[in-house]
Design brief:
This protein is α+β, with helices and mostly antiparallel strands and 436 residues long. Helix 5 packs parallel to helix 9. The structure holds adenosine-5'-triphosphate and magnesium ion (MG). The site of magnesium ion (MG) has 2 residues, from loops.
Length: 436
């Protein structure tokens, strides 16, 4: 036998029955996004590498070491494209919104779902292909939209039956405020340089804010004692933060202020937030986002404010595992047992009509080339399918233009004689019986 092939490390197959949980979550998201008037956007998985370098920032974990990038084959002029599998979707959304001039008639509320790629060390809740669902509101400056996005996420947790989360918020202020804070922050870390790890020392001058986001426990104290960004914010920044908090409070949403919350991406300003849980170990952030008022301009678009979040689908589903078992793949309504291959044309026509009427029908599939298999083995499959009824396409029944219907599940009342023998051409009566 040929050698077995396996999936790429850190990239998972999503198989039934587990895939039903994914569909269940995605369906809930679609309905909810509709209620908040967010519309779906789908951008390509491959983008020019430059999009992420410019969009996410050169001195970030993602761009420094996590991207799947490659040089495309040369075109006929010998030029190569540098391409990257998207590690996140905000940069792409901004590109698309700018490229298609989507903000010409006002702000847009958008959402996406799909795979993202980061070359991280795989572990529980951290994969190399993972999935995000994200919501972005572009062209809106007010804190009410920051609040709307947070309320939308909270509504989603409620819909999903997820209760084990807390909301952390912070404000990163505006670039000038950050610049003042940055100088003080560098001074603080320089005074304590011996307490910094290698990565922090390297980022001390390029991206000191990111040191606050470090997960190294040895640096906890030096980070706790660092100057706080919030103390550098001016009146408008504080007012924005206050109106967000007031709306959250009015809605009874509990939040905590986390001064160390700076987010791993460079593009944020003013509001940043994370939904976190203690039940997933180190990978406790299930949803994260914030405002990025300067990104659109930085990407070559007409200046416009924006805010958004992204949630990690794997982490949310992992959390739900312990909390609900609401997702069951529904069994088919009926299983079609087909005595002889000669019955297949007539049976397939009847099954098509039933399905068009909304009945879920699983047809027996032969496993060998020489016929449909014994009735005994077909009934065994019918039982195993979980279907409530078997439909028996036997020669005698077909000769009368009929099919036999047999209840498979105990507890189901017996069918009347007329229900047990349905006319192939009376789909309405037949499907009513199967729905009963
Ligand atoms: P972390 O701090 O866990 O590395 P991050 O700040 O890199 O997260 P974002 O880029 O903000 O994460 O992505 C939003 C969400 O996507 C995260 O909160 C998390 O739930 C999920 N996520 C990010 N990276 C991964 C990954 N490699 N595997 C699974 N989920 C991920
Ligand atoms: Mg990360």
């Amino acid at each position: 036998m040929a050698e077995k092939l396996t999936a790429v490390k850190g990239m998972n197959d999503i198989l039934p029955p587990d895939s039903a949980r994914w569909e269940w979550l995605e369906d809930k998201v679609r309905v909810l996004m509709g209620r908040y008037a967010y519309r779906n956007i789908r951008t390509p998985i491959l983008e020019h590498t430059q999009l992420f370098v410019r969009g996410i920032g050169e001195v970030t974990d993602i761009v420094e070491k996590e991207m799947y990038s490659f040089e495309d084959r040369a075109d006929k002029n010998g030029a190569h494209d540098h391409l990257t599998m998207r590690p996140e979707n905000t940069a792409s959304v901004v590109r698309a919104v700018t490229e298609h001039n989507m903000l010409y008639d006002g702000g847009k509320r958008l959402y996406y779902m799909g795979p993202m790629f980061r070359r991280e060390r795989p572990q529980r809740g951290r994969y190399r292909q993972f999935h995000q669902i994200g919501a972005e509101a572009l062209g809106f400056a007010g804190a009410e939209v920051d609040a709307e996005l947070i309320l939308l996420a909270v509504a989603l947790w409620k819909e999903l039956g997820l209760s084990d989360w807390r909301l952390e918020i912070n404000s990163l202020g505006q670039p000038e405020e950050r610049a003042q804070h940055r100088a003080q922050l560098i001074a603080h870390f320089e005074q304590n340089a011996d307490l910094l790890d290698e990565e922090a020392r390297r980022r001390l001058h390029s991206n000191p804010l990111r040191i606050l986001d470090s997960k190294n426990p040895a640096m906890k104290a030096v980070i706790e004692s660092a100057p706080r960004l919030i103390d550098f914010l001016g009146v408008p920044s504080l007012a924005h933060f206050e109106s967000l908090k007031t709306i959250l409070d009015a809605n009874g949403i509990a939040w905590t202020l986390n001064h160390r919350l700076v987010r791993g991406l460079d593009y944020y300003n003013l509001t940043v937030f994370e939904f976190v849980t203690d039940r997933l170990g180190a990978q406790g952030t299930i949803c994260a986002g914030g405002r990025y008022d300067y990104l659109i301009e930085q990407m070559g678009g007409k200046p416009a404010p924006a805010v958004g979040w992204a949630l990690g689908v794997e982490r949310v589903l992992e959390l739900l595992k312990g909390q609900t078992d609401v997702v069951v793949t529904p069994a088919p309504d009926a299983y079609a047992v087909i005595a002889e291959s000669s019955a297949l044309p007539a049976a397939s026509v009847a099954l098509q009509a039933l399905r068009a009427a909304g009945i879920r029908v699983q047809m027996h599939g032969s496993t060998t080339a020489d016929g449909m298999g014994s009735m005994k083995s077909q009934f065994k499959k019918a039982d195993g399918s979980g279907a409530r009824f078997a439909l028996i396409f036997g020669a005698d029944e077909l000769a009368q233009g009929c099919v036999a219907v047999k209840p498979l599940r105990s507890g189901k009342s017996d069918l009347t004689p007329s229900q047990s023998l349905q006319r192939l051409d009376d789909i309405a009566a037949w499907s009513d019986t199967l729905r009963s």
